[in-house]
Amino acid sequence: MDHKKIKWGIIGTGKIAHTFATALKDVDNTELYAIGSRNMESAKKFAGEFNAPKAYDSYEEVAKDSSVDVIYVATPHNLHYENTMMCLNNNKNVLCEKPFGVNGKEVRGMIAKAKEKNLFLMEAMWSRFLPNIIKAKEIIESGEIGKIKLLTSYFAFQSPHGAEHRQFNKDLCGGSLLDIGIYPVFLSLFLLGKPELFTALASIGKTDVDNSISMTFKYKDQTLAVMYSSFMANADIFAEVHGEKGKIVIPNKWFTPVDIKVVKTNGEEIPVHFQFKSNGYNYEAEEVVKCLHKGKKQSDMMSWDDSLQLIDMLDAIRKESGIIYPKHDDI
Ligand SMILES: NC(=O)c1ccc[n+]([C@@H]2O[C@H](COP(=O)([O-])OP(=O)(O)OC[C@H]3O[C@@H](n4cnc5c(N)ncnc54)[C@H](OP(=O)(O)O)[C@@H]3O)[C@@H](O)[C@H]2O)c1
Predict the structure, then answer these.
(1) Does some domain include residue 295?
(2) Do 251 and 236 share a structural domain?
(3) The domain spanning residue 135 has which CATH number?
(4) For ligand 1, what atom is nearest to the CA of residue 171?
(5) Are both 324 and 178 inside the same structural domain?
(6) If you measure from the C-alpha of residue 301 to the centroid of ligand 1, how many angstroms do you get, rounded to a whole number?
(7) Taking each helix axis from N to C terminus, what angle separates 15-24 and 40-49, rounded to the nearest 10 degrees?
(8) Whose CA is nearest to atom 26 of ligand 1?
């Protein structure tokens, strides 16, 4: 079936915007059309690199361009709510980077606005759309590794950045939890659902955000999910799901396109290989294009309820571990 080409706008010209724009080259029915930056030099450089016809020196001009169908919000955490609301208010569909908002209040506001305007809105939790992560869930649901007893999931690296960088900057809502700890939390919720109980302990650094955090979820059937994130250590970034009959191993870096394997309790190893396309960010973009063509306002794969469950869990973890962003009328 012939489909209209979806014209994308991107706001923010940082690291992830480049990665996403690279992936868009491999997505059908798609054109990278407009780039918005706080300064024209960056916008023009980015537009030139990716052959985008329009470069703007403000985010708002992207949202006001009547040719743009959907905007990818690739700014720091503190701006996701403000930028998404601005796009929705200008009648634009939105794919917004994770964390969707800084807290549940912001995410609820964004969803209410999308409903009011009858627009598409989705959180760019790219790992949700990766074939390896989807396969892990299928394996669990098939019963192949039996009843799940333990999930371990980590995301840590030694950050080279200083206090001003968004990873550590409190004004930009930095800290390891919202930046990288969100991935293990997502994985536990996606594979095991909402826990009955949890614990969380954060180590708070000089800039008053969490440098590291450890979390444990406990489920009704006594299953545990053990997670950590850190900007302080180059620890392995793997995830394992242990069942009574075997385990699923998702190796370093588990949240990216990597092959996985099943290891049965008798030692038998069953590798699962994938033919990944592009850099992996294409899968979430393909879902957006599919939803727009179908006239859907939210994705079934990463629904508004999924994003609410994730942000409500993050809010609860922050409350428990003392990670507060006062400028965001916080938890
Ligand atoms: N899905 C993923 O795998 C993934 C990976 C990394 C990051 N992310 C998310 O994507 C977002 C951006 O991360 P990033 O690594 O791309 O960050 P980054 O390299 O620092 O880029 C952020 C961009 O936001 C704009 N911006 C607006 N106000 C800013 C401010 N006060 N300080 C710094 N930048 C500002 C800038 O673009 P202009 O100068 O052009 O306006 C900047 O280039 C974050 O929310 C992060 O959690 C997602």
Answers:
(1) no
(2) yes
(3) 3.30.360.10
(4) 31
(5) yes
(6) 24
(7) 30
(8) 75
222 — phi, psi (to 5°)? 80, 5
Residue 11 shares a structural domain with residue 149: no
Q: Rounded to 5 degrees, what are φ and ψ at 81?
A: -65, -55
State the residue range of the domain holding 45.
6-125
Ligand 1 center to residue 29 CA distance, Å?
A: 26
In this structure, are 114 and 149 located in the same domain? no
The answer to whether residues 152 and 185 touch, using CB atoms and an 8 Å cutoff, is: no
Residue 225 above 90 pLDDT? yes
- Selection from 189, 208, 210, 207 nearest residue 198 by Cα: 189
* pLDDT for residue 93: 98
Question: Are residue 203 and residue 256 in the same domain, yes or no?
Answer: yes
Output the average pLDDT for the chain. Answer: 97
Confidence of residue 2 (pLDDT cuts 50, 70, 90): low
For residue 164, what are its two tokens? 């001003």
Nearest CA to ligand 1 atom 44: 76
Q: Which residue's alpha carbon is nearest to atom 6 within ligand 1? A: 16
The Cα–Cα gap between 207 and 176 comes to 12
Give me the pLDDT at residue 156, please: 98
Residues 243 and 209 grouped into a single domain? yes
Measured in Å, residue 278 CA sits from the centre of ligand 1 at 21
Domain end: 64, 92, 125, which one?
125
Ligand 1, CB within 6 Å, residue ranges? 12-17, 37-38, 42, 74-77, 79, 97-98, 124, 126, 166, 172, 179
Same domain (yes/no): 158, 85: no
